[in-house]
């Protein structure tokens, strides 16, 4: 049986705070402070540039990638870590388009994070080969797939509502029509079981600062199915994706497999913090995390229902990720009122309050406390305070 009290103790959670925003930024792992401090002091401070060899810095992207692979159902040597999610998506989509050279449609849905759509639009415009980006409602994706689809590009869990796509079914449907798949796992990795190998997904990307708890701006990951990896000609052929970077050849020669998708210098300090966060997953099965996530979210939904609030997430937990979204015309002010009382979630325009559930550190007591404050805010109209309506830069 999983000891979730032990995993909770592995995080440095502020006293008196109920943190339900791990779907935006995970909390600080206690071990990260000492690990990063040691890296600064003993590795960078004492070894200087020798740290690349002596401290294993250069191997971090692959080493960390293998640890993430365990959490997303991928084989070893299929995941690399570094750069941002936007860069990783650009790489994956470009590679997917290479695999479908005779087709011109990229199919996606309105549940994708806007940045994914921006990246796709920019890439297709730059390629200037007549590609189109077709955006449909999430529930219409399967019916819209056709033999004209080059790439199906989807975020598995909708960042607004938590709606969960059926990766296995949609990947199979895409492949049956000759299309290639790109999955964004930003709201999946570390929150629910993912089976990239079992679903035969072609490409996947994701960030590490949400449910993986890697810290603000933590680097993103990229997965390429092994049989695809040797066929990819990277859109961003970086120095460290070269077969022999320290030969300093004037022309690019791709490294084997996933390594060719490396671009620039690894973010050593950020990767060290991420490694401590991944340590917390070592003794926990993703199936256990998922089961507890459902328990917590169902408890929260029951309380929200009792308050008459409008649930925007799927009611069926099998169709929902690890967050619950509630719509309210005063959603921003209501969330600010909650935050002022020590219950931290977030807001997404125009009217969604989001609550993320991370079983590694959230408890039933957290849910009950959050609901008690939510009840007070709703029943006593505590949001009706002008200060709570002042929009901050980050909502």
UniProtKB/TrEMBL annotation:
Organism: Algicella marina
Entry EC number(s): 3.7.1.3
Protein name as it appears in the record: Kynureninase
Residues modified as N6-(pyridoxal phosphate)lysine: 210
Origin organism lineage: Bacteria, Pseudomonadati, Pseudomonadota, Alphaproteobacteria, Rhodobacterales
Binding residue positions for pyridoxal 5'-phosphate: 85-86, 113-116, 155, 184, 187, 209, 239, 265
Any one GO molecular function term: pyridoxal phosphate binding
Subunit-structure text: Homodimer.
Needed cofactors: pyridoxal 5'-phosphate
InterPro entries, per database record: Kynureninase (IPR010111), PyrdxlP-dep_Trfase (IPR015424), PyrdxlP-dep_Trfase_major (IPR015421), PyrdxlP-dep_Trfase_small (IPR015422)
